[in-house]
Amino acid sequence: MVQSSLVSTNAVCCWIPLFALRCEAARQPDLTSQPHALLAPELTRRMWQVSPIARREGVRPGMTVGQAIGLCPTLRLLEPDPVHYEQEFSALVAALGSISPAIEPVEEGKVFVGVDGLEGLYGEVENVIAVIKEVAGGSRLGWGRGKFIAATAARRAKPGQAVIVRPEDEKPFLAAQSISVLPLDPDTHRRLRLLGIKTLGKLAALPEDAVTSQFGSEGKKIWRLAAGLTIEPVKGSVAPEPIRATLTFYSAVADRTMIARALGQLVDRALKHPRRLGWRVQALRSSAALENGASWVAAGVLKDPSADRERLLAPLLLRLEQAPPLGAVERLTLELTGFVPGTQELQLFARDAAAAARAGRRRALRAAATEISTRLRRPMLYHVIEIEPWSRLPERRYALIDFDP
How far is it, in rounded angstroms, from Cα 204 to Cα 222? Predict the structure, then answer.
């Protein structure tokens, strides 16, 4: 689980706006000819992502269902499937990883690719862009020194096209851009507009000290970005293999208490995994396949990594309380995705004789289970776990999950 970092000064930004909506359009090609919108994953039932056709009818993100239908009676509403979107984005990141080892995902639909050294493999910049286009599909691509210039270039590109900003072209390119490309809070953006500063060129023409005195440390940051003095490199990393635990319900479950108990069972199983010994968990996520074909996702990043059950469970239960699944759950999955080394004492305990013996037994069980599955061509070993002990029906009290030693 040791992580290594890779840094690249030159970057390509691959950007696919409305990524989730694009995923739905790929699954349902008939959507391209009609107005449609994705509902928000929360219970508010508001518009999340809106297609260009629906936008022309006046539909905007954040509107309620009633408002949107009132403006566009033919609007087609889609239930979100965040698990599918994550899978598609992971596939894109993996494909880009076959081109460059320095990959830095930012959000779904936006990822930076470090391209230092790729010209030695593929030749001119245009050749490198062509290789990335082969795996990035209709992405908008931007090439430049540092992530800010690359991202700004991607915003100016058309779908499936690239904008290349060479070092000698950086200053005139940045000078012509609107201040909206800067990472500004609404108040700072309003103040700059009131001062008549609408482009990066006008901002960079001001003295750095004057901007800093007016806007503080944020002013210094945005002035250096506008002047092209901040070159933020792409920082890739080798992600560890996640630890995964899955539970399939005998019948779909909608009760939050039962789902919370199931999450606790999955956290317990994941913490007992041999690869987790000696490591603390920093990031985890849970996903659920719902009865209506949609999905639900909860994720958490711990400020202080931990191996404590309750601390790992807390962000998942908070998400379950604030934005529960919009349907009955058929399958629940937990993944531990980020790790940091434990204390020296934890690592010593992880290497003691008892832990080594347990790890050896689990390896033997895993080999036996694999051999059985190979011979019979389907899994035949299961765990029985307690789900709803107070129920009078046996099939409600217990659930079967695949045996994963």
Answer: 9
The matching CATH number, chosen from 3.90.1010.10, 3.30.1490.100, 3.40.50.300, 3.30.930.10, for 243-402 is: 3.30.1490.100
Of 372, 368, 358, the closest CA to residue 273 belongs to 358
List the beta strands (DSSP E) in 231-373.
234-237, 243-253, 279-290, 295-306, 329-341
Residue 186 has pLDDT above 60, yes or no: yes
To 10 degrees, what angle do helices 256-271 and 309-322 make? 150
Amino acid type, 242: P
* Residue-level pLDDT at 120: 86
Phi-psi category of 377—alpha, beta or left, where left has phi over 0 and alpha has psi -120 to 50?
Answer: left
Percent of the chain at pLDDT above 90? 54
Q: Please give the CATH superfamily to which domain 5-15+85-234 belongs.
A: Reverse transcriptase/Diguanylate cyclase domain (3.30.70.270)
The pLDDT score that the predictor gives to residue 345 is: 39
Structure tokens at 145: 């020194």
Residue 58: which of 72, 42, 76 has the closest Cα? 72
Residue 359: its pLDDT value, please?
59
pLDDT band at 1 (very low <50, low <70, confident <90, very high): very low
Structure tokens given for 238: 């080798």
Residue type, 336: L
Q: 3-class DSSP state for residue 285?
A: strand
Q: According to the per-residue pLDDT averaged within each range, which of 225-229, 288-292, 324-328 is highest?
A: 225-229
Phi, psi angles (nearest 5°) of residue 313: -75, -25
Distances (CA, A) of 379 to 333, 372, 374, 383, 403: 18, 7, 8, 12, 8
Q: Return the pLDDT at 349.
A: 44
